[in-house]
Specification:
Rossmann fold, 3 domains, seven-stranded mixed β-sheet, six-stranded mixed β-sheet, 38% helix, 19% strand, globular
Length: 416
């Protein structure tokens, strides 16, 4: 239910009456948020880490660098989204009582507000929740798709609207083909350049310098403002990948010429944090895979176990790439030193403990040296805090291998 009206019209009073009438109601903005742990550890207590990440992404807080911060380190808008994710997690125990959200998305940029509203509608449908949201803004009805809208005026007038039934359904469709957020009607996919990707590269969890040889870039652009909201980068594939050999029955083993002719790799996919969770990444990948021009496109996705965006875009999940013995050895050494890369204290430990810092710096150097030049200079120029964050990005995931194959005559081409 969406309650709309100007300041002083009685929106908060109506929510208070709802809380009195419905035992078990929970106020989103009044929720206690733990201050002594990272955001990702506080959002879904008792749940798996994967579920916490899914909730944060669904509430438009999809940046890994923000998940590791404490609540007070977030902006006001980010704090609201973190509170919303935690409220949804806790409220699963009493889904029949309403979640109450006063000043819903009031402090957010309007595009962010529309993305949050769109994602909340999906959460409500998926979780079977009841939500009463109150706002002075009149631009969220299309994205929130409420079952009822109550409009209040300062004169005490009350009008109740019930949107058409089909408008309340969250349908699966391409982003700007219908069923997506309202701002999607202004989005277009076009060929771009590495300079376009650079506009968003700082928002990606991996270092831009490790991107390798770029073959093509596509971007999602908001034509109303000219802003790039998403980018995907394709490049030439590495010579050997065990999961590729498994998926293609060894088609490219010791055959670099065939590999260069038939295969490209999806190197990066980044979507602006304001609009994550709205389907832009899936749409961008699905629309551009056929435009790459090769028979196959592969991808190693570090977040594949959390976010199934590549499967939803039409790629086939082959399997998880096993962790290397070197990585396990580094983690074991850090544990012996009392350091945990996945704790909120890790950055501080790297900054304050020279022994831990030496292990981390050597590991980052080894990874850089294996993939790019100038490893020594890059590590020397990196401060302890950034070293810790880079290490966590490199070591904290097991990539999932995906493969897309161009259809020939209505069917996928054979790998034989």
């Amino acid at each position: 239910m969406l309650i709309v009206g100007p300041s002083g019209a009685g929106k908060s009073r109506m929510l208070t009456r709802a809380a009195e009438a419905c035992p078990g109601s929970r106020w989103v903005r009044r929720l206690e948020f733990p201050r002594d742990v990272s955001v990702v550890d506080a959002v879904a207590p008792g749940e798996a880490l994967v579920e916490a990440v899914r909730l944060l992404t669904a509430c438009s807080l999809g940046e890994p660098r923000l998940w590791l911060r404490r609540f007070e380190e977030l902006s006001e808008g980010e704090q609201f989204r973190a509170l919303l994710a935690r409220a949804v997690s806790l409220h699963r125990r009493t889904p029949e009582a309403p979640l109450l959200c006063d000043e819903f998305c009031t402090s957010l940029h309007r595009r962010v507000a529309k993305a949050v509203a769109f994602n909340l509608r999906k959460l409500v449908t998926r979780e079977g929740l009841v939500v009463f949201a109150a706002t002075a803004h009149d631009d969220l009805v299309e994205d929130l798709r409420p079952d009822a809208v109550i409009r209040l005026s300062r004169k005490g007038e009350v009008a109740v609207e019930q949107p058409a039934a089909e408008a309340s359904d969250v349908v699966a469709a391409t982003v700007n083909g219908g069923g997506g957020p309202s701002f999607a009607r202004h989005l277009e996919i076009e060929r771009g350049s590495i300079r376009d990707f650079a506009e968003l590269s700082d928002l990606h969890y991996r270092d831009r310098d490790r991107i390798g040889c770029v073959e093509g870039v596509f971007v999602v652009r908001d034509t109303s403002e000219g802003e790039v909201l998403g980018a995907v980068v394709y490049g030439h594939s590495p010579l050997e990948l065990s999961r590729r050999n498994e998926a293609t029955q060894g088609r490219f083993v010791r055959n670099a010429a065939l590999l260069n002719r038939e295969m490209r790799i999806l190197r990066r996919l980044v979507v602006h944090p304001d609009v994550r969770g709205c389907g832009l990444g899936r749409w961008l990948v699905a629309q551009t895979l056929p435009r790459v021009g090769t028979r196959y496109v592969e991808c190693l996705a570090a977040m594949g176990l959390v976010n199934p965006v590549f499967e939803r875009a039409g790629m086939r999940r082959v399997g998880v790439c096993a962790g290397s013995g070197r990585r396990e050895g580094v983690l074991r050494h850090l544990r012996e030193l009392g350091a945990d890369p996945f704790s909120a204290e890790f950055v501080r430990q790297v900054c304050r403990q020279p022994g831990v810092r030496r292990v981390v710096a050597q590991a980052v150097y080894d990874w850089y040296r294996a993939g790019t030049g100038g490893a020594g200079d890059r590590v020397a120029r990196t401060g302890p805090a950034q070293l810790a964050r880079t290490f966590r990005q490199l070591v904290g995931s097991q990539p999932v291998y995906y493969l897309w194959e161009r259809e020939v005559g209505g069917e996928s081409a054979s790998c034989a």
